[in-house]
UniProtKB/TrEMBL annotation:
Residue positions binding 3-phosphoshikimate: 19-20, 24, 164, 166, 312, 339
Binding locations of phosphoenolpyruvate: 19, 91, 119, 166, 343, 385
Role, per record: Catalyzes the transfer of the enolpyruvyl moiety of phosphoenolpyruvate (PEP) to the 5-hydroxyl of shikimate-3-phosphate (S3P) to produce enolpyruvyl shikimate-3-phosphate and inorganic phosphate.
GO molecular function, one term: 3-phosphoshikimate 1-carboxyvinyltransferase activity
Entry's family note: Belongs to the EPSP synthase family.
One BP annotation, GO: aromatic amino acid family biosynthetic process
Name of the protein this chain belongs to: 3-phosphoshikimate 1-carboxyvinyltransferase
Catalytic activity: 3-phosphoshikimate + phosphoenolpyruvate = 5-O-(1-carboxyvinyl)-3-phosphoshikimate + phosphate
Major enzyme class: transferase
Database matches in InterPro entries: Enolpyruvate_Tfrase_dom, Enolpyruvate_Tfrase_sf, EPSP_synthase, EPSP_synthase_CS, RNA3'P_cycl/enolpyr_Trfase_a/b
Transmembrane segments: none
This enzyme's EC code(s): 2.5.1.19
Residues of the active site: 312 (proton acceptor)
């Protein structure tokens, strides 16, 4: 993908459905009794991998673009897959399905692409084994492929060392099959879509502070799910609207769950002009239209409890920092090293290539903003969020930017370049 400077962005777009919520809707719909209709489903590669896995376990799922119908067969309705479950690039698919597989009466193997098969899985192997699960890393390296022989599970209380919604969700989903109440306490609250949606499916799930607890239900009850727009996808257009001159963009129906909206808080701290209209609440999931206008930004500090609420947005926050006056410090974000790529190293390397004064630290980065960006050849290691971040950098840099493997945006945002183009006011720049 080649990009050059765009002088102005204007118009409105509806960003695609939330990735985390789309995964969960398919999973819980498969485990529920009855038919679940999902609208505004994210038809990106990650969520399609989740559909594929459940089809391989005997669930009939119809997908027509963003409309999905799942014919759930109940908590004990899955059947042994004939093949390895291919989770592609998706950590959420891997870690959440592992919790479900731990409680089945069959054996299954999960495997993904090169990046996925290097990501840490000990974080779920440890609590699942505490529950009595039979799960092993096939290569004995703490990574996928994972072989899971389903078993009767013991209820536990788990003190998670990481604030990870994937770990929390994995344990709660195994808790669906345990012999009593299972709870998870995390150091800082992570996204709570699992807790909210399991409740919509009729499960008794309580949340108190950073502890979530599930009582194993007899069955889950099918329900219809309307997926709000993904704030993690909106993030690229929020950044584009803020830093591209003379811009005003309306982003329709963006999910604003308080465990996900840290980006908005940080942008406002930096001086961003972001307005909200049409605020709504669907099953506890808030959403609103966002109106984003070009703003003078100033540096800030991003740390502590805020980190899990914006974990996937840190590369694009780093880009905003490059356009801001003064210094931005991001800390407590060591989790970034084990995402689809090492996002601390890759973000900083690519920012430096474009002329930004940026430095990696052990748990984050320091960026001194204000210097003009120049085009560069960007390698994203097939990480969709790096590709999208540096595309926004490219349309605000002098000269040409080339993004290698830009098609990896399909993982979470197949229409990204199309929508970016639709906001371009003149033909001066090129996408
Ligand atoms: C996700 C949780 C986060 C996030 C990922 C999606 C989820 O991962 O980075 O993109 O849907 O639960 P961790 O739980 O590993 O922080």
């Amino acid at each position: 993908m080649k990009l050059t400077r765009i002088n102005r962005l204007q118009g409105e777009i509806a960003v695609p459905g939330d990735k985390s919520i789309s995964h969960r809707a398919v999973m819980f719909g498969s485990l529920a009794k009855g038919t679940t209709h999902i609208s505004n489903f994210l038809a990106g590669a990650d969520c399609l991998a989740t559909i594929d896995c459940f089809r391989k376990m005997g669930i009939q799922i119809e997908q027509d673009g963003t409309d999905v119908t799942v014919y759930g067969k109940g908590l004990h309705g899955l059947t042994k897959p004939e093949e390895v479950l291919d989770v592609g690039n998706s950590g959420t698919t891997t870690r959440l399905i592992s919790g479900i597989l731990a409680g089945q009466n069959f054996e299954a193997t999960l495997s993904g692409d090169d990046s996925l098969n290097q990501r840490p899985m000990k974080r779920i192997i440890t609590p699942l084994r505490m529950m009595g699960a039979d799960i092993k890393s096939v290569k004995d390296n703490g990574c996928a492929p994972l072989k899971i022989q389903g078993k009767k599970l013991k209820a536990i209380h788990y003190e998670s060392p990481v604030a990870s919604a994937q770990v929390k969700s994995c344990v709660l989903l195994a808790g669906l099959y345990a012999d009593g109440k299972t709870s998870v306490t995390e150091p800082v609250l992570s996204r709570n879509h699992t807790e909210l949606m399991l409740r919509s499916f009729g499960a008794e799930v309580t949340s108190e502070g950073t502890t979530a607890q599930i009582t194993p239900p007899k069955e889950l009850r099918a329900t219809d799910i309307t997926v709000p727009g993904d704030i993690s996808s909106a993030a690229y257009f929020i950044a584009a609207g803020l830093v591209t001159p003379d811009s005003c963009i309306r982003l329709k129906n963006v999910g604003l769950n308080p465990t996900r909206d840290g980006l908005i808080r940080v942008c406002r701290q930096m001086g961003a002009d972001i307005q909200m209209e049409q605020i709504r609440d669907d099953g506890g999931e808030m959403a609103a239209d966002l109106i984003v206008r070009t703003s003078e930004l100033k540096g800030t500090v991003v740390e502590g409890d805020l980190i899990p609420t914006l974990i996937d947005e840190i590369p694009v926050i780093a880009l905003l920092a490059a356009f801001a006056k003064g210094e931005t410090i991001i800390r407590d974000a060591q989790e970034l090293k084990v995402k689809e790529s090492d996002r601390i190293a890759l973000t900083v390397d690519n920012l430096v290539k474009m002329g930004v004064n940026a430095q990696a630290t052990d748990d984050g980065m320091i960026i001194r903003g204000g210097a003009p960006l120049h085009g560069a050849h960007i390698f994203c290691e097939y990480d969709h969020r790096i590709a999208m971040t540096f595309s926004i950098a490219g349309i605000n840099a002098e000269g040409e930017t080339i993004i290698e493997d830009a098609e990896c945006v399909d993982v979470s945002y197949p229409t990204f370049y199309e929508q970016l183009k639709s906001l371009q006011v003149s033909e001066e720049g090129r996408i």
